[in-house]
Amino acid sequence: xxxxxxxxxxxxxxxxxxxxxxxxxxxxxxxxxxxxxxxxxxxxxxxxxxxxxxxxxxxxxxxxxxxxxxxxxxxxxxxxxxxxxxxxxxxxxxxxxxxxxxxxxxxxxxxxxxxxxxxxxxxxxxxxxxxxxxxxxxxxxxxxxxxxxxxxxxxxxxxxxxxxxxxxxxxxxxxxxxxxxxxxxxxxxxxxxxxxxxxxxxxxxxxxxxxxxxxxxxxxxxxxxxxxxxxxxxxxxxxxxxxxxxxxxxxxxxxxxxxxxxxxxxxxxxxxxxxxxxxxxxxxxxxxxxxxxxxxxxxxxxxxxxxxxxxxxxxxxxxxxxxxxxxxxxxxxxxxxxxxxx
Length: 342
Hints:
Elements: H1 2-36, H2 48-61, H3 72-95, H4 98-106, H5 108-120, H6 126-143, H7 151-177, H8 182-209, H9 220-246, H10 249-256, H11 258-270, H12 277-341
């Protein structure tokens, strides 16, 4: 009974983590559309990790979270990879067509699978592989349109995909390696990322857009959307670490494409974006793939748990036989000793 309650509580927590990630991510996209669009407030500067770092520092100072001993060099390495991911994705979006950008994002799923196999020896069942293919095809059908390739854009896309995949794998591996919670890890990595982005961000923004933060004329409405964007980004970052820590980088990529489906639907409802039969077909295929993937992962977990239980039972039986053999040998020796003394 207690085990069932624990499983039910864990399932509710898992659903809550995914819901928080989807809602915060989709809301962040909509808020940023208002904030960064030329028809909105044309604010193209980011303070998301500054806000996340501030929340993390406050949490540590108040004792809400405890700081675990993670080597500084690993935090710096992770921050470099994460910042490379952010920069690479932005450059990829700028230099590539929307179609090629979507293709590069879809390629993260197989790249994460290959990297987890190379780095951690992780194996995937045939059902999981097939489900991943279905999701990739579905999201590709509903998002990929024109695909134009150029050398600079391809290089940026390659760097972005590799860095993003490594970053997401590292989130899970660092949490397991140092037995650290998702928010505890985020509160240690966010200040390093925020500091580096504050130093390098303005230079990159000026190089890419020819704009400086000091030149921006802020309005009360723009200030509200900046605060809203930063707040949503905090929840988005926390939920990302939480989801990857509970599941895996592959699951985060596969099920994370539910955000793509939600964005397409909300774009149609709120911004009069076109919704074609091709979009509907792709979304249906993607959702079906996600359902198949969830079932395949649960089936693999059940198989692994049964195999682990079998190994435990076998080990227990071997110990019992060994003890029985030792006791029998001792008894035989005692009888032989009694006979010799008699």
